Amino acid sequence: MRAVQDVSFEVRDREFVAIVGPSGCGKSTILNMIGGLVSPTAGRIEIDGRPVAGVPPGVGYVFQKDTVFPWRTVRRNIALGLEYRGVRGPELERRVREAIALAGLEGFEDAYPATLSGGMRQRVALMRTLVVDPGILLMDEPFGALDTHTKLNLHAELLALWGAKRQTVVFVTHDLSEAITLADRVVVMTRRPGRIKLIHEVALPRPRDVITVRETDAYAREYGEIWHVLGEEFRAPAAAGAPGAAATGEGRRR
Amino acid sequence: MSRWPERGVVTAWRLAIFVALIGAWEVLTRIKAVSRTPGFYWLDPFFISRPSQILRRFAYLASDQVRLSIWDMALSTVQSTLWGFVVGVSTGFVAGLVLGRNDRLARILEPYIVAFNSLPRIALVPLITMIFGFGLLAKVVLAWTIVFFIVFFNTFQGARSVDADLIHSARFLGAGERHIMATVIVPSTLAWTFASLTPSISFALIGVVVGEFLGGESGGGLGYLIIQSLGTLNAADMMVALIALGVIGIVLALGIKQVEMRLLRWRPEHRGRT
Question: Does residue B110 lie within any of the structural domains?
Answer without folding.
Answer: yes
